Amino acid sequence: MALASAWVWTVAQAQEASSAAIAPSPEAAEESGGMSEQARIQALRRASDAVLGVEVLGLADARSNASVGRERQGSGVVIDSDGLVLTIGYLIVEAEQVQLVLDDQRRLPARVVAYDVATGFGLLQALTPLPLAPVPLGDSAALRHGEPLMVVSGGDNGAVSLAQLVSRRPFAGYWEYQIDQALFTAPPRTDHSGAAVFNAEGELLGVGSLLVADALGNDSPTHLPGNMFVPVELLKPILAELRHNGTTVASRRAWLGLNCMERDGQVRVLRVNDDSPAEEAGVQPGDRIERIDGAQVQSLEQLWKQLWNGGQPERVITLDIRREGEPHRLTLHSVDRMTTLSKAEGI
């Protein structure tokens, strides 16, 4: 998207101030390449221009419509000269139609290339040439706490803002999702879905997933709203696999159809998906999950990892729950998550 020079200059200046405050060694300065302010501004402008809008119409019978709606809007970022676009997967899962929205409000058709359940990434391929240069992938593992970042969204209401990294830690979602090194930034953006976060060299560091009430984490005495980004370090080792197969081996994993919450060392069921293994087994909202296949459950991370690592995607799973103070043992028949997702004709 087109970006006011003042915003790019602000991010560049923030990086200069941050670097000066840290006072890097001559060796570190040499390794960084000594990027000039002008070069940094050009890199940030290129990065901003590579972000576009993503508009999706889900299949009429898609399960995902219940959680993300049938009509979806977000962002994506061009990462290859052939028109490959990286976005967040929940925007494009079970998509019937996809359009990419340029800065001049032109809409170009695209197709879904891949959806990765394990990381949450999605890939799109523009069906006509894109007049946008791709951005390089950065090193999200090298980010420093408090480092200034640029967050960019695309589409008709695309925007750019300054943010900073406030936390890097594992993240477990309520919807059977977990990654080990999520990036948390502040201040928050409501247009986070598929938004891109860049370092001051214009390198892509992550893709926006969520608005969170506490970006600092449970161990912090204060609460700071912010966003969670999926880091590009998770994309690099699987990009070729995604392009070739449309998903990854790690995404072929057990699914129960549970939404759960974690509080004070307890995991409770919030919602049970329709026509899911959990619904068929009689799991109910409010149930406290105490064990899965005999393993104690005190966190969402424990629950999801035991579910995925305990055997084949399709198998018999035992849940020990407590309902209204009474213990119950339920038997569930998990399914491969990828087999539950609908695809448009021809995909």
TrEMBL record:
Gene3D superfamilies: 2.30.42.10, 2.40.10.120. GO terms for molecular function: serine-type endopeptidase activity. Belongs to the peptidase S1C family. Keywords: Hydrolase, Protease, Serine protease. This is Serine protease. The keyword tRNA processing does not apply. GO terms for biological process: proteolysis. Residues 239-300 form the PDZ domain. InterPro entries: PDZ, PDZ_sf, Peptidase_S1_PA, Peptidase_S1C.
